[in-house]
Amino acid sequence: MSNHSPLSNESITPSGAEAKPKSEGRCHRLVRSLKKPAEFLAFWVAITLPFVHLPLLARGLGDPNVSLAFLLLLVINVSALYVGHGYNQE
């Protein structure tokens, strides 16, 4: 005799290892939804940040604090260029 269930397998919720792809899908959707705004922000930060470098360069890099600020801004600018390089590309 066969034991037929009135419920189909699709109505049973997955548990354990079978539930992982659903949570990974949420994470992937979250990353995809944040990618465009992050690229937008990084692109425009990379465009505008060099204007902050100009006063530091005009003041001179002899002061260690000014040199440190310049180097930190340069690292942020390069990072923003890396993150924002794909903005508005199909």
TrEMBL record:
Note the superkingdom of the native organism: Archaea
Among InterPro entries, the record links this protein to: DUF8028 (IPR058341)
Task: Keyword check for Transmembrane, yes or no.
Answer: yes
| Keyword tags | Membrane, Transmembrane, Transmembrane helix
A Pfam family reported for this protein in Swiss-Prot or TrEMBL? DUF8028
Ranges that cross the membrane: 38-58, 64-84
Q: Where is this region: Disordered?
A: 1-25
Residue ranges with Polar residues bias: 1-14
Q: What is this protein called?
A: Uncharacterized protein
